[in-house]
Specification:
152 residues; mainly alpha; 9 helices; 3% strand
Length: 152
């Protein structure tokens, strides 16, 4: 995951990186999606929660605080929420749409939420509510070899 952060933060000022850290749903979530596409390093603990465990907990817990706060009460739960969120946003709308948001968030991190609404046509909270509804009516399946699963 450190390589994912390095790639996301390359050629940026320290101030810009600092401002983006105030948007962990974006900065950490995107790094998590990129890192999650590869195999975990042997001997290293997964940052995310297993899909089935996350689904069970997410059905009974509001996801919005993971996206609304900078300080997280449970980073593993938040990382998992962010990862499933971005997987769900990127796949149906395509990488080009996501790359427009990424460019906007990187250039002006403090406007990242506003830019999300401009790019995706809905507010961030609404998009998180849709993810929560999907978790209520569907299950996560362990269909990836690493057992972390995806939304079906």
């Amino acid at each position: 995951m450190n390589l994912s952060h390095a790639t996301l933060n390359q050629n940026r000022s320290l101030l810009s990186v600092w401002r983006l850290l105030a948007q962990p749903w974006f900065s950490e979530g995107v790094a998590g999606v990129v890192a999650g596409r590869g195999a975990p390093v042997p001997g290293r603990k997964l940052v995310t929660i297993l899909a089935g465990d996350f689904a069970a907990r997410a059905r009974n817990e509001d996801l919005w605080p993971s996206f609304d706060a900078v300080q997280q009460k449970d980073w593993r739960f938040s990382y998992t929420a962010w990862r499933f969120f971005w997987d769900r946003e990127i796949e149906p709308r395509g990488k080009e749409t996501f790359l427009r948001l990424e460019a906007a968030c990187i250039s002006e991190p403090e406007k990242c939420r506003t830019d999300f609404a401009k790019v995706y046509g809905m507010g961030l909270q609404n998009a998180v509510e849709i993810l929560s509804e999907r978790l209520t009516f569907r299950t996560l399946c362990a269909c990836r070899p690493n057992g972390r699963g995806s939304l079906d």
